[in-house]
Amino acid sequence: MLWVPDWPVVAAMAAGQAEVHQSVAVHDGRRITAVSALARTQGVRRGMRRRQAQECCPELVLLTVDEGRDARAFEPVSAAAETVVAGLEVARPGLLLLPADGASRFHGSEQALAEALVEQVAERTGHECQVGVADGGFAAILAARASSVVAPGGARAFLAPLAVEQLVHAAMGDRAVAEINGLLDVLHRLGLRTLGDLTALPASDVEARFGRLGLWAHRLARGEDVRPPVRRRLEPDVEVTCEFDPPAERVDAAAFAARRLAEQLQAMLLERSVSCGRLRITAWTDAGDELVRTWRTDAGGLGGLSPARITDRVRWQLEGWLSGNALRGPGRAGGQGGSGNHDRSAPAPAALVRLGIAAEEVAPAGAEQGWLWGGASGGDLRAHRALLRVQGLIGGDGVQVATLQGGRDVRDQVHLAAWGDARTPPRVADRPWPGRLPEPAPATVLVEPAPVDVLDALGAGVRVDLRLTMSAPPVALQWRARPRDRGQGDGVQSGSGQSGDDDGPHALVAWAGPWPMVERWWSQAPKRRVHLQVALADGRALLLACTGGEWTCEAVYD
Quick one: pLDDT band at residue 501, thresholds 50, 70, 90? Predict the structure, then answer.
């Protein structure tokens, strides 16, 4: 965190509205909001009324609040700090939030990083600043005010002895200051004097008593961040757009315009000597919809994307939106050409009125981060180009990759997306999913579950009742044959390690479970399932599921 003390006063002096030797204060019409160091020695404090401040210092120069002046004057400070640390956030004029992990390793230590920041700001702007390092934004603010470096993991201990009045330094506006002052008044009347006193209370009790503001204060006092920092990027996105007049109703017409846009985009990137990490495609329709999709281009520069390949991606995306009914407009007659099999009662696709292509994550050419053991090899680049070629032949969705997403069932956790598509999975994986199987996850999930019988010591089938009680401990597993007309039966069994003529029961050497999973419990037809992990005598480990009294093999562990 980089902090310039009394920035509104410093900005006013830099603008020539006051002299350095004068006692200066900034007010909002009612109270003092910023005070110079010289005025502070005369007893002037923030929060005083103007008349009270003039009584303390009759020669006090009063200036009105000017947020535009403060922001304009602070930009050189931000630019100077950006020569040392990339990717900063301006919390408010006078206060910068900077990521210190990578920069401190580059400069050798956090102390060396702080010294470099102070030196650069002083040399480039002439302003003095203070730098503090700590875990969490609030702890970093207070560390900057004290010009100290807090050891990793020590933010809570650093904050504990401080007075609760320090919470006001986390306010980013006048309204927030008023709300925090009201909270501080209540905390004092309850006998909570320090931040440690506040964190000693359970978070649930604080939220129940003080609501959202109390929970916010409790999290800050624990040294946690309420939100991740919004860091600005050094290089702006490069974007090209075109308007369709009349609106384009055919994909080939839009793709023809996309070719010109792709050539313009590549020319702009070459002119600026930059490369991009992502390609964003945006389409606007005459129905008022805005459709956005982002593709990865992280295999060296543009990822081998020539204007022709960029055009292919635009065409694939438009075709995907059309096939997914994303470009449907009410009240339009006709179809999308040709087959005659469209439902005449269905609305026709909406027409495109605007198309845009933008290069995101722009960085100087050649500045891409290499892999741990070096950059991408020639074989890797050839593989990327081959996949792009396959996509050009069979379409964007013809080449898919699997990514992990949130879910309870092992199949729900697999998300298939087109290769190169930068979309995030629809369900976040790090959220709690009640009923989810414990780690580790299985290595292979069968395309179609294989039917099995779980047997007890007497050879009878093992059952699980509604109370999750098993009729007997499982001791063996029997594969059941599939009817030949199901097509994939042999393949599924071979995928689980079984051949079609292997019918004998397999002894179990270990098992764990059962784990219940109930989905759509609120509906009239809830889905109930019980999972069981078993280890066979031949060394294989399987994931079994029981639904409606029938056992199936769902997945295989390594």
Answer: very low
Dihedral sign computed on CA atoms, order 150, 155, 158, 164: positive
pLDDT of 149 > 80? The answer is yes
Q: Where are the beta strands (DSSP E) in 232-380?
A: 238-248, 274-275, 278-285, 290-296, 352-360, 363-364
In Å, how far are 52, 227, 435, 441 from 154, measured between CA atoms?
A: 40, 20, 36, 35
pLDDT in tens, 308-318: 777 777 777 77
**pLDDT 10s digits, 251-271:** 777 878 888 888 888 888 888
More confident residue, 557 or 229: 557
The span from the CA of 251 to the CA of 326, in Å, is 13
CA dist 30 and 439 (Å) reads 60
Q: For residue range 165-195, list pLDDT tens digits in order.
A: 888 887 766 667 778 888 888 888 889 899 9
Q: What is the largest CA-CA distance in the chain?
A: 102
Q: Could you tell me the CA-to-CA distances from 36 to 5, 33, 258, 531 in Å, in that order? A: 9, 11, 57, 68
Residue 157 lies in a domain: no
Task: Give the CATH number, domain containing residue 266.
Answer: 3.30.1490.100
CA dist 255 and 312 (Å) reads 8
Read off the pLDDT of residues 330-346 as tens digits, 9 standing for 90 and up.
Answer: 444 333 333 334 443 44
Q: Which pLDDT belongs to residue 489?
A: 39
Report the pLDDT averaged over residues 130-157: 86
Other beta carbons within 10 angstroms of residue 289's beta carbon come to 14
Residue 425 domain flag: yes
Q: Which residues contact 276 (CB under 8 A, 6 or more apart)?
A: 238, 269, 297, 302, 359, 360, 361, 362, 363
**415 and 509 both lie in a single domain:** no
Q: What is the overall mean pLDDT for the chain?
A: 76
> Both 34 and 122 in a single domain?
yes
Cβ proximity of 183 and 170 under 8 Å: no
The number of folded domains in the chain is: 4
The candidate with the shortest Cα–Cα distance to 330, out of 284, 283, 288, 282, is 288
Residue 409 has pLDDT above 80, yes or no: no
CATH number at residue 121: 3.40.1170.60
Residues ≥6 apart with Cβ < 8 Å to 271: none
H helices of 273-377, in order, are 307-323
The pTM for the full model equals 0.46
Q: What's the domain range around 470? A: 444-557
What span, in angstroms and rounded, lies between the C-alpha atoms of 310 and 295? 10
Residue 487 makes CB contacts below 8 A (sequence gap 6+) with: none
Statement to judge: residues 259 and 381 lie in one domain: yes
Percentage of the chain exceeding pLDDT 90: 1
Question: In whole angstroms, what is the distance from residue 434 CA to residue 377 CA?
Answer: 43
CA pair distance 262, 309, nearest whole angstrom: 9
CA-CA-CA-CA torsion sign (551, 553, 557, 558): positive
